[in-house]
Amino acid sequence: MIETNKKFSVVSDHEAPLKSANTHLIAAACTSGGMLYKDGYLDTIGQGHDGKPCRTVVWLMEEKEITFSATQKETISTQEFIRRWHDREWCAANPDHPIVFMRYYQATLTQLREAIRNETPTLVVKKGGRAAYIPGNATEAEKSALLSKL
Fold first, then answer.
1. Domain layout of the chain by residue ranges
2. Predicted confidence (pLDDT) per residue in 70-120, tens digit
3. What one-character-per-residue DSSP string does the chain give?
4. Distance in angstroms (rounded) separating the CA atoms of residues 150 and 143
5. Full-model pTM
């Protein structure tokens, strides 16, 4: 259930989430200090206006301030870039450095993709102006109970 008096930013499209640019956007926002709302991901498949299947993916982000700290201009060797990338202590000591942002972005994107792979789309069935949202892992009894309410 969504909390009242809370502000959100909604990002949605009709692309497969593992291919969508929005998944990268969400990973970048989370890496930068944004927060995905609890259960803030919904992948649905329903019937479009043309009668064909239509997928909609919605991300719900908590609305909050994201602060960026500027780093000093710096020139380093490729070898130093690689060393820093792999040095967890250096990353922990330099959380605002662009190398760390890229590293954490990659980790966040990997986590989001894994979560997407573990989810099954929710089926949306519309009838007479009402809609039933049936989780992809619902049992036959649960599906029947939801459809009976239409």
1. 8-65+73-119
2. 667 788 889 999 999 999 999 999 988 999 989 999 999 999 999 999 999
3. -PPTT--EEEEEESS-TTT-HHHHHHHHHHHTT-EEEEEEEEEEEEE-TTSSEEEEEEEEEEP-----PPPPP----HHHHHHHHH-HHHHHH-TTSHHHHHHHHHHHHHHHHHHHHH--PEEEEEETTEEEEE-TT--HHHHHHHHTT-
4. 12
5. 0.79
Phi, psi of 148 (to 5 degrees): -65, -20
Burial state string for 94-129 with b = 16 or more CB within 10 A and e = fewer than 16: eeebebbbebbbeebbeebeeebeeeebbbbeeeee
Residue 134 tokens, joined: 């049936």
Question: 6 φ, ψ to 5°?
Answer: -120, 145
Beta carbons of 42 and 26 less than 8 angstroms apart: no
Strands 122-127 and 35-47: parallel
Question: With 90 as the cut, is the pLDDT of residue 22 above it?
Answer: yes
The amino acid sitting at 122 is: T
d(CA 49, CA 112): 30
